[in-house]
Design goal:
Blueprint lengths: L1 H6 L6 H17 L3 H21 L3 H10 L1 H12 L6 H22 L11 H4 L7 E8 L4 E6 L6 E3 L16 H30 L21 H4 L1 H11 L2 H11 L5 E5 L18 E4 L3 H13 L7 E7 L6 H11 L5 E5 L5 H8 L3 E11 L9 E3 L5 E3 H6 L7 E9 L14 H7 L4 E5 L5 H15 L6 H14 L2 H10 L4 H12 L11 H4 L2 E4 L1
Parallel strand pairs: 1-4, 4-5, 6-7, 6-8, 8-11, 11-12
Antiparallel strand pairs: 1-2, 2-3, 8-9, 9-10, 12-13
Length: about 525
């Protein structure tokens, strides 16, 4: 790399020079040579700025800026771990600014942002004595965890020293060793998940929902590694993210905390981090703190009139999910004036027309596709091979909608390559369109367990419609601990044919009274409360 920099001095080779600088900075960072990192980072940042100024098209600027996202990420690292007292705050503000830029780039396609990213002082408005924020940032060299507590100084969690020789001057810093272990874990998680999805597709080209065999709806010993090892994998993730360290800090400095706001970054968006805190706190996710502040302001100014249409239920557009339609029909019974779009009626024009009505809740049961490489192509699958795309959602005005519940099986959420920059998914688009709460899924969900979960969620939601996060957390805890005694009353509420009802009851009757058939996080942890 050093020899290459001596060669790459001509003006027409500046892009190649920047690529070498980016790689060399990461090498120096791994070798713990902080002074070299600072010098080269300053040069690379300046060079990137000059190249961006010379470009005229916003699309080219965005593409170049994303390609060299690591320069901003490494700058966040440098500030976060600086001994200067004000630098960690600057690091958090820079990480937040980058998130909001990425959200804006995808929504508007313009490079420059006309909206201000919140200052640290403004971020405090999301906090109260019972609420804290855990904010992660991943660079090519570290996982940085910021903890924001009410009337508490910003805390940057220090990674625990691994059992290696850290006295060597060029030993990788603990933050870098933590990142390497996380990347290895993430690689295994993705590989196992892809193998599970391929197995699932071979077993049933549509989905396990339309087989009518309830035994296929519960993970068994024959399931692939990803489902069977999930509890152990999540336990390891808990160690890698040092959740015990986070809990210890909160216990010491924020003892009255009952609600956590989680702000993930990059690949962390793809993981059920809330499962690591379940039964301890009520959990909410946010794509960025700015989204949360905008949402808070929207809630304060929301119209108080009751909508004329309380629920829009989009039911099984592809017609391949057996329990999805039953789930939707049963949920509709809980709401006044529900409007249903079952199967072939769930077209793009019908949904767009329904969006113009004062919908309070949208419940979608079907399939979603998240495209990490080309986020604009992410969509909900509709009837007649139509799609409700990210672009369509961004363009909609859903400020009248309180909740969007995506009871959807995903396809393609976990790509083989890692995310190099901020993740923008369907939930972010719905929030940008004005929705205050989203419930979304992270993986191909089990159909029967999802039906039970959604019924319990909407049932609890009737008690306090504003507290979506608590309703989902309680529903997940219920499903996790439910025995057949708790599940049988749910079966009675499903509008099943007599043969299907008999099969389900026979299946449950074979289960030991104390067994919890949906205890695995595979059955309940896919769903996240966002907003």
């Amino acid at each position: 790399y050093q020899q290459a920099l001596k060669f790459l001095t001509s003006p027409h080779l500046r892009l190649q020079r920047l690529e070498v600088l980016q790689d060399l900075i990461q090498v120096y960072r791994a070798l713990n040579q902080t002074q070299d990192v600072q010098v080269l980072l300053a040069e690379a940042t300046d060079l990137l700025g000059r190249l961006l100024q010379e470009m005229s098209l916003d699309a080219d600027k965005i593409r170049l800026s994303r390609k060299f996202a690591s320069l901003v990420q490494l700058r966040v690292d440098e500030l976060a771990h600086s001994p200067e007292p004000t630098h960690p705050i600057k690091a958090l503000e820079l990480a937040e600014e980058r998130k909001n830029l990425c959200l804006r780039w995808l929504r508007y396609g313009t490079y420059k942002s006309t909206e201000d990213s919140p200052s640290y002082e403004q971020m405090q408005h999301l906090l109260n004595p019972h609420t804290a924020i855990i904010y992660w940032h991943i660079s090519p060299a570290a996982i940085t965890t910021f903890i924001l507590g009410h009337e508490q100084p910003l805390h940057v969690l220090k990674p625990r020293n691994p059992a290696t020789d850290n006295n060597h001057p060029q030993s990788p810093p603990p933050s870098f060793q933590q990142l390497l272990k996380f990347e290895d874990w993430m690689k295994t998680w993705k590989q196992d998940y892809q193998a599970y999805r391929q197995f699932d597709q071979r077993r049933n080209q549509a989905n396990s929902r339309d087989r009518g065999n309830p035994q296929r709806c519960i993970p068994s010993d024959e399931e692939k590694r990803w489902t069977k090892t999930m509890p152990k994998s999540l336990k390891r993730l808990k160690e890698l993210l040092d959740i015990p360290g986070i809990m210890q800090h909160l216990k010491q400095h924020c003892p009255s905390i009952t609600h956590l706001i989680l702000v993930p970054h990059r690949d962390l968006h793809l993981l059920p981090i809330h499962a690591l805190f379940l039964d301890t706190f009520t959990i909410t996710y946010l794509p960025s703190i700015k989204v949360g502040l905008d949402n808070q302001q929207r809630k304060a100014t929301q119209r108080t009139q009751s909508p004329s249409l309380s629920l829009l239920s989009v039911e099984n557009p592809l017609g391949d999910l057996k329990y999805a339609s039953l789930e939707s029909v049963t949920i509709c019974q809980l709401y006044p004036q529900p409007y249903r779009l079952p199967k072939s009626r769930a077209t793009l024009s019908a949904i767009q027309q329904a969006f113009s009505q004062p919908i309070n809740i949208l419940h979608f049961s079907g399939h979603a596709e998240h495209n990490l490489e080309h986020p604009h192509q992410s969509h909900l699958k509709l009837a007649n091979d139509e799609e409700l795309t990210l672009k369509d959602i961004f363009a909609a005005d859903l400020s009248h909608c309180h909740l969007v519940c995506l009871s959807a099986c995903e396809t393609g959420l976990t790509s083989q390559s890692g995310l190099i920059d901020e993740f923008v998914g369907l939930a972010s688009a719905f929030l940008a369109a004005g929705v205050t709460h989203i419930v979304g899924s992270l993986w191909n969900v089990n159909d029967l367990s999802t039906t039970f979960l959604m019924l319990k969620f909407h049932e609890i939601l009737q008690e306090n419609p504003d507290d979506v996060s608590r309703a989902l957390n309680q529903a997940q805890s219920w499903l996790k601990n439910a025995t057949k005694r708790e599940l049988k009353p749910m079966i009675k509420r499903l509008l099943l044919k007599s043969t299907s009802r008999i099969k389900l009851n026979k299946f449950l009757n074979k289960i030991d009274d104390k067994r919890k058939p949906f205890a695995s996080p595979f059955c309940w942890a896919a769903f996240c409360p966002i907003g």
